[in-house]
Amino acid sequence: MENKTIYILAIESSCDDTSAAVLKNKKVLSNIVASQKIHQEYGGVVPELASRAHQQNIVPVVHQALMRANIDKKLLSAIAFTRGPGLLGSLLVGTSFAKSLALGLHIPLIEVNHMQAHILAHFIEGQNYRPPSFPFLALTLSGGHTQIVLVKDYFDMEILGETLDDAVGEAFDKSAKILGLPYPGGPLIDTYAQLGNPTAFPFPKPKVGGLNFSFSGLKTSILYFIQKETKTNPDFILENRNDICASIQHTIINILIDKIKEAVKYARVKQIAIGGGVSANSGIRNALKSAEKELGWHTYLPKLEYCTDNAAMIGITGYLKFRENRLTNQNISAKARYKI
Predict the structure, then answer these.
(1) pLDDT, tens only, 62-109
(2) What does residue 148 show for φ and ψ, rounded to 5 degrees?
(3) Cis status of the peptide bond prior to 60, with omega within 30 of 0
């Protein structure tokens, strides 16, 4: 199987990005992503609108992925798709399309866990590092998840800690909303933070036992802080935006780094790999690189295009599953809640 050329068509539709990719073994031949701009008007993802947009996008996105890869669909070995977790309506579009196409082409179907795929994105060929060796710790950061995972093998993963309430991406986006920034606000906080003083405004760090996280209290403290300051100075946000963003980001990064330090001690593993949309945050990436030098960790930072939701990560997971004959039958259904 190692020497055989395997072509995987991958489909990702867990939230508001419709994506299709073609992989030749571990190499990405194409990775097309169609983002949905409509949600900006509402300040967040509207599930019904997301699923309708997926229906409009999926055929042209898959067609473009095949065209860019210069692959005839008859050469495909299997179709991999995101089964979950995610928005059920969005997942149903990708799942139904993948099942139909696999049935029509008489090729195997492979279900993929979206969060598992964020971790296995590190095994895509063509990145500027060798993939981590087992075991390693994965920090998955997204709008819906914050997890520390002990990765013992491709499909042997154990969640050591996760958020008890809001995910880190939600904390960034809701903090941005409090500051009056447009959706998605997380990347804007990162941009402004680079121009500000990270210790200008100290925010409390939640006390959570073990390796779990909590961000709802931090979000509330930011809200009360802004309400208090704008009462006395209506221009407070405008005058201090860079410092506020830098302080918020600094607090969140410290929470993450503290928990990773605990996880390293607990698991006795010094390889740290990050994944998920929030792993594109420059502050988090820089903090992990600094910790690598100070604490002797080895950190793995994926290419930015493999951080956000994309089908390439679904494709590499599909390829690894195909090699082990972990195939799926046509009775499979989408699953909004789906643990690693």
Answers:
(1) 999 999 999 999 999 999 999 999 899 999 999 999 999 999 999 999
(2) -110, 120
(3) no
Q: 46: pLDDT confidence band, cut at 50, 70 and 90? A: low
Please report, for residues 17, 22, 99, the alpha-carbon distance to residue 25 in angstroms, rounded to integers and kept in the order given. Answer: 24, 9, 21
**Strand (E) positions, the chain?**
7-12, 17-24, 27-35, 78-84, 109-113, 136-141, 146-153, 156-162, 271-275, 298-300
- Domain around 41: 7-122+307-323
Q: How far apart are CA 112 and CA 246, in angstroms?
A: 36
3-state SS, residue 179: coil
The residue assigned the tokens 């692959």 is 71
Query: Which residues are bridge partners to 150 per DSSP?
Result: 137, 158
Handedness of CA 249, 250, 253, 255 (dihedral sign): negative
Domain count, the chain: 2
Residue 9, phi-psi category: left (phi > 0), alpha (psi -120 to 50), beta (remainder): beta
pTM above 0.90, yes or no: yes
- CA-wise closest residue to 264 among 285, 287, 292: 292
Identify whether 334 is part of a domain. Answer: no
